[in-house]
Amino acid sequence: MRRILACIQCGCMLDPGEQKAGLCPRCRLTQSAAAPAEKPAEPAIPPAPEIKKNPPAAPQKTKRRILIADDDAVFRKFIANRLTAEGFVILTARDGQEAFETAVREKPDLVLIDVLLPRLTGYDLVHKLHKQTDGSQHIPILILTAKRSMKKFFSEWEIHGFMTKPIDPAEVTAKIRELIETAEFARKKRGGGLRP
């Protein structure tokens, strides 16, 4: 004899396959809708990483520009390469007139001048620069010369320094840095401020 059971919810007769559940199909649906199964917990979303703002970049110092005025192409290239390796930007001139025009136009941080230049001697170049009123008159000047005998005249030239050839590149670099630093403080004192 077959045993028939009733639905424990509504009392309707259950098929043998539904007897284990104890509910008829209609009551099972009603129960599911009334009490939905507990949802599995959603995985915790980690908080977004804190975005670190980069600190403002420090103002970059402009590379210092050096004008080399020398008619000797080999020496010009030699000293230009050495100073470039030290972080300077190099401008060159083959004669005094070209050096004057470049200095007035570009306003370098320092001019290296050979005394014996074609078209405009080192002496004439120095005096022509000193007569300018556009700021060129304040450019530091370093004389490089093979003529040791001219040393006695340099005090009259109103130059900032001189060195005799052959030169020691390390000494020239140190002298350039010293003269530029001195010129920066003089510029600040005049009210022109420091260059970036």
Describe the structure in your own words:
The chain is of the alpha/beta class and 196 residues long. The protein has a five-stranded parallel beta sheet. α3 runs parallel beside α4. It is built from five helices and five strands. It has a domain at 65-190: Response regulator (Rossmann fold, 3-Layer(aba) Sandwich), CATH 3.40.50. It has helices spanning 25-34, 73-85, 96-106, 122-130, 169-190, and strands at residues 65-69, 89-93, 110-114, 141-145, 161-164. The relative contact order is 0.10. The mean pLDDT is 76. β3 (110-114), α4 (122-130) and β4 (141-145) form a beta-alpha-beta unit. The radius of gyration is 44 Å and the shape is rod-shaped.
Helix-strand blueprint:
Layout: H1 25-34, E1 65-69, H2 73-85, E2 89-93, H3 96-106, E3 110-114, H4 122-130, E4 141-145, E5 161-164, H5 169-190
Parallel strand pairs: 1-2, 1-3, 3-4, 4-5
What overall form do the CA principal axes indicate?
rod-shaped
The major pleated sheet works out as:
5 strands, parallel
What is the typical, i.e. mean, pLDDT?
76
Strand order of the largest sheet: 2-1-3-4-5
- In total, how many beta strands? 5
| Helix/strand order | HEHEHEHEEH
CATH class annotation of the domain at 65-190: Alpha Beta
- CATH level 3 topology of the domain at 65-190: Rossmann fold
Distance between the termini: 106 Å
Under the CATH scheme, the architecture of the domain at 65-190 is 3-Layer(aba) Sandwich
What Rg is obtained from the alpha carbons, in whole angstroms?
A: 44 Å
